[in-house]
Amino acid sequence: MHFYEISEADDEIFTNVLLAHDSEYADDEFLEIVLEAREAVVKTFEEDSLIEAIAIELERRHGFAHVEANLRAAVRVSSEEGETIITPVDERAHVPAELDDFRTMLIETETEDRPYRD
Could you tell me which residues are beta bridge partners of residue 20? Predict the structure, then answer.
């Protein structure tokens, strides 16, 4: 299984979609089919984001699998004892968008800013 990522960003938010496929695509081949899918959906998509629409198009045309759509288990990990818990996948699917805290955040930090524990 090979994994591919498509992402979308502006000045404040970075989002991504992970896809899987049995075949390995070279970088330029993957870019080509993403551009083709983008062209097909960019003016008419109804999904929450362009990358979700592209992912659906790649599933339909090229057999990719949207990894999160196939998620079987989700665990919320905490540094606090007893707070690492399982979150049922079906509950994640029904969280209203304004309450959904399972989004990806990309934060740039300097090495000296990272907390280390002995």
Answer: 3, 65
